[in-house]
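ingest -> fold -> write
write: protein_1
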Amino acid sequence: MVGFTASRWLVAVVGFGFAGAVSAAPPPDLDRYAGRVMQTFETPGMVVAIAERGKPSIVRTYGVKRLGESAKVDEHSLFAIGSTTKAFTSAVLAMLVDEGKLTWETKVSDVLPGFKMYDPYASAEMTVRDLLVHRSGLGLGAGDLLFFPTTTLSSADIVHRLRYIKPATSFRSGYAYDNLLYVAAGQVIEAVTKMSWHDAIRQRILTPLQMKDTSTSSALKDGTNRAWPHIRTSEVARGIGPMAALDKPMTLDNSAAAGAINASGADLTRWLELQLGRGLDPRTNTRLFSETQSKEMWTGVTLMPTPTTLPKGMELAKPNFRAYALGWVASDYRGEPILAHAGGVPGFVTMFIVMPQRNVAFAILTNSEEMGTLASMQNRLLDHYLGLKSPDWIAALDASNKEKITQAREALAEKPATNEPVKGPSLAIAKYAGRYRDAWYGPVSIESAGEALRIRFENTPTMIGTLEHVRYDTFRARWEDRGIEDAYVTFALTPEGSIERLTMKAVSPLADFSFDYQDLWFTPER
């Protein structure tokens, strides 16, 4: 799940005026360029949706819905849009602010009386705005294993378990992307509207905009016109190897407010048009939220770090500033203020861009996890609408991607700097078996079968695998579902030789932050 206090300064920089007459017509070589991008990064299917204020929107489609099948992606094919869902959640909250049912500074505990964080001060002071801007004190992706991969927990269960996740920093002291507080934001919507988050999104956004394809659920019916998720996977690591279709899409409905929407290119032009209208639907002349709230959602709140260096050939894309707003990232591209947000779920990555001063917005949808595809397309389109010459983004991103994979392979192949044979384990294999519990995740079971160990995350049905001994008391969890990141599992012993705790760490340096194994601290159930 992908995402990216000088608010007054950022309002001035981002701007909301109308400037720069441009055409929504895409680059004349867009189809050829898209073909080269997809071939370079082996992307099966892609959609580019473009909107310009006052002109007809455009949807371009490329490739196939699933490798090995002939069905083409079309403008009504559904793609998982991941964390770009967050802007839909913030938009509904903006409508509730317009209606006087809450404010951005309303205390969450006043709406959700049982709401608690690990830190009592954060519990008492957390506002609706705080839920949306990634300054809670939680670590990067903390608690994502509560919903990712698919778990049996409810949204209410997830929000309840926030109280057991230790913060990485103090409240409001810095930026760290999280998903769980958007789940809490969905609970706020449900408490105020007296309807589910799904119904609120449908009634307040999808129906008025006639977004008939879009689903608020990632559990789509068989036969739906949907793109299929694809990933690279091998015995080496997830993210390395040939491109292949997943056995099935991941269902994330218990974290829907953070990233469960599936949408088509045709529908997303309507959403982009609403953004360019600052809350006014230009086709029906209906206002969904006020221009004041549009400005609020686009105003940066939490400063984000900017890269000190970029890979060779990517220097022009280096931003001067970045700040997280309410479901959007306020930033700049080659000096031009933009609003952006990426989204990712297993097998899909997406990017939404709004150019406020140019009155142009676009979305890029793909059914693979190739960030090089997104960045190549995004930068080419931005250059076009700014009237700037493009460097060879594809070549630069391809080289950078290959370098990362090479480095990851080398790291995964590293051996201990010793000629000594692998030592351990300290105990007989059967001694590691048992049931262990983490305060926020819950239980895992480890079972022995002869000389083998099997591990099972009890709230996550697909997280079942074999523990392969590595060295000393560390094992590698090799999951049956190869779409899940393998993890090192390390047991720590008491002086008496019994197991004191079990900790984990992702094996691959390419692992997505939502596999937050490092936040787990399992102890034996006695």
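write: protein_2
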Amino acid sequence: MKTPSALLALAATALLAGPAAAEKPQYGGALEIGTVYATISALSFDPADYAWKLNHDAGIYLETLFSGDLSKSLRNGGKFNFKPDAWLPSEAVRGELAESWEWTESPLAVVVHLRHGIMWPEKAGVMAAREFNADDVVYSFKRQDASPKKIPGYFDHVAKVEARDRYTVVFEMKEFNAEWDYRFGWGYYSQIVPKELVDAGISNWKNATGTGPFELTEYVQGNAQTYTRNALYWDKEKIDGAEYKLPFVDKMTYRIIKDEATQHAALRTGKLDILEAIRWQAVDQLKKSAPQLKWAKWLAMSGTYLSMRVDTKPFDDVRVRRALNMAVNKQEIAKEYYGGNAEVFAYPQHPDYTGYFQPLEEMPASVKELYEYNPDKAKKLLAEAGYPKGFTFKVQVCSCSPDNMDLLPLVAGYLEMVGVKVEIQPMEYGAFLSAMTTQTNAPGYFMANGHTNPTTTIRKNFVPGQVWNPSQWNDPAFSARVAEMYRTRDEPTRQKMIKDMTIEMLDKAPYIWLPTPYVYTAWWPWVKNYDGELRVGAVKPGPVYARIWIDQDLKKKLGH
């Protein structure tokens, strides 16, 4: 057994022995990953189920029209960190199945030109190998649009979709929508599937097939998802002027590990090559026990909050909602609970959303007040609202989130100091999600919800009928403003509208707004062509993993 100091010496020797040779891509080997969602198995393999996590699981083999351009990553000299859960600025978008696209004005349409020669691989019992074509895109879109699980209004801006020829698809619009590329091009529910897969049974993982870099070859719920190299994959990576066929690794496995300590042990012992989400509390110990690990720090792309149902008493009164915000010491949570590894204000907009995010110091006094600990004013507001002795309410929380399970009792402690008692109801993920999607969630609902992107975060949180609206917010005037924002083509104008709507919703406080923590990603130095990138679309990591190779010699020298 090599000592840590000996391993460090070997690592240093390996890195100094010849950087050119060390950085030359290698084929083969296996990649073991504890992803951002390491505690949650696949929710579905069918895009028509409208399961938010599908791109993370089926997106390894199913592709979309557009994707994030990793050649513009920070690691490659660009300006994008590819951490956001579902935001790609227009300059960060590349064609995936699409080669190019352009707008026409009469009619208002997006004309998409597809890549030639992309193949659906042969899949026994499902389909023969054949070329991907425009009919696949039209079929996939119409199937999504017809799904009974579709998000209300999601494709209402599209008049029709037609295949002009084998490699050209026309999306004719009823009106402009600011999320046009996100909704059918690179977002959560935009994967392209062959009709043969649907006919064979798309919900059965054993039938899985696609044009992406890997094929799903084994699935054990609650344990692992194993993907193997797609020999017909079309994309290449340019490194030092030379092009290399992708993917580099032969096999890639998601490990589903619910227990945090087990995740950390798997990383520390090299059973995981990458662990994408590590809470700050574990970082120092991991750095001591596995000093060779490489690290990236990023502000979580999900906001933590306690949602209050505004269609139930006492939360129909804004004074109560504001009081509960003032009753919670958010600065203390950021400093003590998170050890300073958090931002007090970073939701519903994320600081990475340049042009859309306004820092707290630029907010009006009425918003700033919600982030200042003031239990005396909280008690006064509760008394004015008719609750001088407080009240009791139930809060549901997902047992799948260690952070939320730890944090909610602390929030409950603050609320109890102003007379408000919380009944905590832990739930398994399936039941927890179902409660919100069926609008049967309790008056309190505690969660971390993805920022998504600057426009969607406003729609999904505060427009009725949306999946991620646990407060059941329903304001027709506000919904009309959201619709107008989507129709606005000028981005600076749209940014101003979004800033104004964000201020309004912060002020009305349907949530107890809580700090957003920093998260850490760690990986072993034998993981190459990687710097902690997480997604190139809506929770879509496939192209990131396809570009990683394993330095087998370094891995052996480090004792693994």
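write: annotation protein_2
The domain at 302-517 is CATH 3.10.105.10 (Dipeptide-binding Protein; domain 3).
Confidence is low (pLDDT under 50) at residues 1-22.
pipeline exit 0
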